[in-house]
Amino acid sequence: MHFVSEFVLLGFPGQRKMQNFFFSLILVVYLLTLLGNGAIVCAVKWDRRLHTPMYIFLGNFAFLEIWYISSTVPNMLVNILSETKTISFTGCFIQFYFFFSLGTTECFFLSVMAYDRYLAICRPLNYPSIMTGKFCVMLVCVCWVSGFLCYPVPIVLISQLPFCGPNIIDHFVCDPGPLFALACIHAPFTELMCYTFNSIIIFGPFLSILGSYTLVLRAVLRVPSGAGRTKAFSTCGSHLMVVSLFYGTLMVMYVSPTSGNPAGMQKIITLVYSAVTPLLNPLIYSLRNKDMKDALKKVLGLKINQN
User: Where would I find the G-protein coupled receptors family 1 profile domain in this sequence (predicted)?
Assistant: First the structure.
């Protein structure tokens, strides 16, 4: 049984002027993220040229990013303006569930997108027969459903720990590390299970991505023409940039030992993968893809340069 009915999320330190600066910056990032990813979703939906597996995955990924950033940033903005900076016990664990479930879904989507690129480059003749519309929809559904089925058990275990005070979390989200620190008892089994679980969730899809791109690299290096190699690398480059940014920060935060890291560093790392990567992803994908750029110009009401 827990005694704490609410937690205090300290968020970002500083005077009111600094708080207002953080609020403005994060609000701009949030709105730009909604605009960028929303434009990609609309482009994939409305442009028939983008009704292919690669863009269907990308459209779902952009839709996911909208919800992923929305699981933390609105509450973060309210928290900055709040005097009490409190979040209810239930609200804390609901945020925990959606934030981590959506993050897990993102890991799965990145893995599936890497597999799609592997099929397209390494098995181009078999690609249409393997990556059918039905199989594509099935993979999308598996990513969404499995992402939301992974975290109930760890969250239930952590929520059952006794929290008898203090209730101050030096973070802007409900994260397992600070929650374990606030528990009244030491729970090595639950901590080990969550650490192992996080490692599997992160490294499983990461190794799958690594395997896919190792095979892609081998196939690309065998392409005789320089133009063919450049095109193949360009197709995969944007995806690799997103993977590197997202997984790099995740591993630093949840796989490497972070107990000795200052709270400020943990906040910065969390802010990168929870707010910055959803903002950069649409830019990375659209700037390196002509079809997507053309579709986005239509969506945003701009004239297409025919030259």
Answer: 36-285
**Length of the chain (residues):** 307
Task: Please give the Cα distance from 275 to 73 (Å, whole number).
Answer: 8
Q: Could you give the strand order of the β-sheet that contains 168-169, starting from the edge strand earlier in sequence?
A: 86-88, 6-9, 168-169
Alpha carbons within 13 angstroms on the beta-carbon side of residue 137 total 4
At residue 306, the pLDDT reads 42
* pLDDT (0 to 100) of residue 170: 85
Residue 62 — left, alpha, or beta (φ > 0 → left; ψ -120 to 50 → alpha)?
alpha
Return the number of other C-beta atoms located less than 10 Å from residue 304's C-beta. 10
Burial group, residue 215, by CB count within 10 angstroms (0-12, 13-18, 19+): middle
For the chain, which ranges sit under pLDDT 50? 1-2, 258-260, 303-307
pLDDT in tens, 250-301: 777 766 554 445 667 778 888 888 888 898 887 777 766 777 777 777 777 7
